[in-house]
Amino acid sequence: MDDNILTAVVTGASRGIGRCTALTLGRAGYRIFLTYASKAEEAEATVREIVAAGGRAAAFRLDVSHPEAVTDFFQAEVKDKVDLHILVNNAGIVKDSLLVRMKDEDFDKVLAVDLQGAFTCLREAAKIMLRRRAGRIVNISSVSGQTGNVGQANYSAAKAGLIGLTRAAAKELAARGITVNAVAPGFIETDMTGTLSDAIKDQMLKSIPALRFGRPEDVAEAVLFLVSDKAGYITGQVLAVNGGMYC
To answer: Hey, how many other C-beta atoms are within 10 angstroms of the C-beta on 148?
Structure first.
C-alpha cells in the first residue's frame, strides 16, 4: 500500500447521488476511487473537484453488470494497492415499463446492474476488508424497493433484493468488524426526476410530508454517518431518506 489514507470506492459516481457522495467523502478525508459506466467527462470533473478541494481521487470505467470486470478492477486497482475502508454500491439504471409490457431483457439488465453488480462489488470488497478486519459497506436501495412502484417491477425487485443482500451480508461480516447497511432514498432531485412533467412532480410532492424533493446531499450525509465511527454498532439496517413518505 502506498500510504495510510483510507480509500472509499463509490460506484456510479459520475453524477447524481453517487457524485455527491464521492464529493462528501472526499471532503471528509477519504481517497476516492469512483467508477462510471459511460460518463467519462463527468467522472473526471468530479475527480478534479475533489482534488481542487485538497482531496485525492481517481476515476475508473467499470460496468458492474460484468462480474469478471468487477473482479479484475478490485484485483488490479484496489487489493494491496490502497487501504480499502468503504464501499458505496450506488451504480444503478432504470428501464421503466408497465408489468405486462416489460421486456425480459429490460428486467434482466436492471437486475444485472442494480443487484448483481452490487453483489459482485460487495463480495470483492469483503474479501479485502476481511483481511484487515474492518470496513464499511453501504448499499443504495430505494423507497421503490420498500413500497413498490408502478412501472418499476424490475427496479423495485432489484432494490428490494439489495435490502435482503444487506441484511445477509451484515450477519456474515459483523464479527470481523465490517458493517453493511443500506440507504433508501425517496424522491431525490437528480437527472431522473428532472425529466418528469410538472403534473407528475406535483403528484409526487403530495406523497411527501416534508413537501419537498430530497437533495443528493441528504443521501450523501446519511452515507457519511453510516461509514463513520459513530455508526460502528449499526449494521444490517435500512436508513430511509424520504421526507417522511411512510412515517
So the answer is: 14
DSSP state of 97: B
Q: What integer pLDDT is reported at residue 131 of this predicted model?
A: 96
Strand blocks (E) in 95-237: 135-140, 178-185
pTM for this predicted structure: 0.96
Active site residues: 155
Given a contact cutoff of 8 angstroms between Cβ atoms, the answer to whether 118 and 169 are in contact is no
Distances (CA, A) of 60 to 48, 203, 213, 225: 14, 38, 30, 25
Q: How far is Cα 71 from Cα 78, in angstroms, rounded to an integer?
A: 10
CA distances from 103 to 107, 111, 158, 241 (A): 6, 13, 16, 31
Per-residue pLDDT band at 1 (split at 50, 70, 90): low
